[in-house]
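Trying the structure run again after the queue cleared.
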Amino acid sequence: MRSDLTNGKGKVSRRKFLASSTALASAVGALSGVGSAQHGQESARSVSDKSKSDPGPTNVALDVQNPSSVVPPATDAGSVPVFKYPFSLSHKRLHQGGWSREVTVRELPVSKSIAGVDMRLTAGGIRELHWHAAAEWAFMLYGSARITAIDAGGKSFVADVNEGDLWYFPTGIPHSIQGLGPDGAEFLLVFDDGNFSEYATVLLSEWMAHTPREVLAKNFGTTSQALARMPTEELFIFQSEIPPPLASDQSAAAGNLAGAAEIGCNRPRIIDGDTLDCAGTRIRLASIDAPEMPGHCRAGRRCTPGDPYAARNYLSFLTRGRVECRAVDTDVYGRTVASCVSDGRDLSCAMVESGRAVERYGWLWC
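Done. Tokens:
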């Protein structure tokens, strides 16, 4: 027994015990106050203006947007995680044709079940055909775009969307997006997985780059030569021409060209450097544009410069024998757009390589 609590006869003194207990309670209370100051915080109203001051450099714009970070409310306790992350701080991936930026669980740790992408496409700019394991919900922020998708049964869907519209693509559905006139589009994409990244999707260009050329040639009904210049890296976003009217794309996607898929003739009649008549079918060579014949370049249209007679004569030279064409589309004038081959040479590629036409209105892999 402690001697300072006894009365000298070995017995506990009540008066000394009560005095010691009061002192101990006061000490515990003081320590509790220190612990509260370390692990919590005082009410903002009880803290002096001097304590709230921030005399060093500050980001005024961010402070105004985040007043609860500048002067936290009394309900905050300990470390409070960040609950928002602006797209303005995200890295922007810039391409000819548009850009994208994303916020995922890597930028915002609390976002474990949702990720967001802000994307901009110019007029004609294309987010190439791709697919991913996460479902995609979208909200159009600005402008107009054309969305194309292929479902699990191989059926296609083509539609135009405008500011304020929504779309939804389930998991694994291949789809592409293209900006329309006059100024393309910007849209918000939302995915049901915080670990999702727009930069880790399966891209058509990447898939084709890793597929043997002979397999692709057989699949698309063309020659390996026509695929020789196929991109070896992903495109992701790229610039193209503004697409034709919606009805034209919907008709092509629905397979209305099936009856004219294969067209063949001997020595077709040459109209100009990119158009010929084969067995009574007017055909526009796919993905190229040659100089227009005199009087055919309408006002306001971007026409390819050069000698139209030289282009027409060279196409006539290339088609001295048998020509085989495979229809791929119908243009705004009702002509069949086709990939044509003569004597083992892709006519579109040959015209561009000769300098008598330019690549336009799509991809040209030579």
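The two ends are 100 Å apart (CA to CA). Worth checking whether this holds up in the mutant runs.
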